[in-house]
Amino acid sequence: MSFTTPPRPFDVTALTPRLAPLARTATRLHPRPGSPTVHDSSVGGPLLWPADEPWPHCEGPHDASLAEDTPRSAEDIRALRRVRAASAERRLRDRRAPVRTPEEDEVWRRHGGGRPWFEGPVPMLPVAQLYARDVPLPARPAGSDLLQVLWCPCGHGVSEPRTALFWRSAATVTEVLDAPPEPPAIEKDGYLPRPCLLTPEQVTEYPSTMELDEELQDQLSDESRWEAAGAEWDDGEAEDPQDFYFRNLATAPGWKTGGWTFWSLTDPEPRDCPTCGTEEIPLLTIASSEWDDGSVSWRPAEDPADPAQHLPGDPSEPTLVDIRGGYTLQLHVCPASPDHPHLQIME
């Protein structure tokens, strides 16, 4: 099925026309649990990886003392997720049903205890595979039609998991790697994306408040301008008009390509390429959720308002990815050359 972002509560360019030339197109990926193949665009799905090309490994360092959660194998995490999903479905039918059955308790005992920490290079995990036929890919190198994103199963400081990008032409992959290696342990369950298919949708974005000049910020703060334009900003969640703009009219939440950089934790920082100094542009946003209480206006019309009526799990958290308890990891690339290092921004 397709997913449709509701119309924005208000055309903000009617409030301040100076925003019009700042509009950018972002592509919301709308990941939803499924069974992708190597020929699908996906989150957490199998990659069209050449059988004769080495699988990427992270060289570290991987400090066990910095681990936030109990390290588990990918098999452990998948088994425990099946138990949680079965429990949620059972209790949705009958609230008096047991949280776990004896069989599920055994699965928990077998897989919940954790795994030994690893040393040395560790296989990276698939995060996303995006075909250009499905998803617009900013700064796509000539001759490529496929982007593959992987990351380390271990956090690396404030930037979270270390990511790796691979551009390739799908037609050149004649023999696919059948069984990619998996890391012996994953630091957090939220670093293993649940396999999801995508239903991309293009939306219009505007800069975060902190990227606007003082005049535009003042115009957005002026309640009389909102009143004159016939716009309502007090939706019960926003603290002021600027906050309403930030939550509902600027950048879309969730997994997406392109658009504007999202800023919430820090002031905007330089995004200069470390090789050539060109400003890097947003490529892919990896998100912990598709929306939250403050951005519910972005919830697709097809998703239920009550998460309890949706299976499997909360529709706002389809990938089960968790970046530091709910943040995003934004990957930026240099438009001058795909060979230049990409940047990670956690917000």
UniProtKB/TrEMBL annotation:
**Region Disordered: which residues?**
26-45, 293-320
Q: Which domain of life, per UniProt? A: Bacteria
Q: What is this protein called?
A: DUF1963 domain-containing protein
